[in-house]
Design a protein that fits this description.
about 20% strand; 2 domains; alpha/beta; five-stranded parallel beta sheet; Rossmann fold; elongated; about 290 residues
């Protein structure tokens, strides 16, 4: 399989070079652009699998570039788009989420987190593409069978390795290696995982992403866990507070008042799946 193509658009030359070097060292094909206009031209030429773009740039800024792609270049409408943002630009993050940005990296860039988020975004895009391809194959077979043919048997997805049923799971929290580690454990076991770094985006999209379980980290980019818990709908299944290392027992007990369960991070595979079984059993018995 060829390496994924990643385009970095950043007007600070030194930072752009550093990002490109980190991505290349991780095995990606990388192209660079210094502003939004040249970035748009490079997207049309390079056809990246993912774009990492600064927001504030001369000429066409990051928001304008994303809007141009979504409105006038439908072939790139679902290309994952990660914005680079100053820590204080919370309003920019909210605007970007509303426009369809997939994720954010705050400056100064933590390159380890950057690589984890790039990997996660690409994996999620691959799952979407695979699902579309499967739907197209099913439609083609249905259309070519003829009206008198027997219907195609439904094909179930591979069963999770842990023996659990296949679950829809939401992860909500600030970008951190513990969050991405939890995502990898769940996806590697065969579950469908959707990640939100914005609490508001999660709340706004609950109807689109109903879940068997939702893991809510103590902090997100714009909200804290207790507020998210109070505003979460019943269709999100078991609501689990994912807590960082050092979160004391008193705080755990307080958290349980608004959450169905608590998961200390980092998660370990065997104990995680045992806890999942217990939480689902409790939910079904309620």
């Amino acid at each position: 399989m060829s390496a994924a193509r990643v385009l970095c658009i950043e007007d600070e030359a030194d930072l752009r070079a550093d990002i490109a070097e980190e991505l290349e060292d991780a095995g990606y094909q990388v192209s660079q652009a210094g502003d939004g206009r040249s970035g748009l031209r490079e997207i049309l030429r390079f056809r990246p699998n993912l774009v990492v773009s600064d927001i504030t740039m001369p000429g066409l800024d990051g928001f304008g570039l994303l809007r141009e792609l979504r409105e006038n270049h439908p072939e790139f409408a679902e290309t994952p788009f990660i914005f680079l943002s100053a820590l204080a630009d919370r309003k920019d993050q909210i605007q970007g989420v509303k426009m369809g940005a997939d994720d954010y990296l705050t400056k100064p860039i933590d390159f380890e987190i950057m690589l984890a988020r790039v990997e996660a975004s690409l994996r999620q895009a691959m799952r979407v593409d695979l699902k579309k391809q499967q739907e197209q194959v099913k439609l083609y077979k249905a259309l070519t069978q003829g009206q008198d043919s027997a219907p195609l048997p439904a094909q179930d997805p591979p069963a999770p390795k842990s023996g659990l049923p296949s679950l829809r799971i939401n992860l909500v929290g600030v970008s951190h290696e513990d969050l991405w580690g939890l995502q990898r454990l769940l996806e590697d076991d065969g579950h469908m995982v959707t990640v939100f770094t914005s609490g508001r985006s999660y709340l706004d999209n609950q109807e689109k992403f109903p879940a068997h379980l939702s893991f809510i980290c103590l902090h997100t980019d714009d909200m804290q866990a207790p507020m998210i818990s109070r505003m979460t709908q019943d269709q999100q299944g078991v609501l689990v507070l994912a807590t960082p290392a050092g979160f004391d027992d008193v705080a755990h007990q307080a958290a349980l008042r608004s959450f169905g369960a608590v998961l200390p991070l980092p998660a370990e595979a065997n104990s995680l799946f045992e806890q999942l079984r217990g939480w689902l059993k409790q939910k079904s018995a309620a």
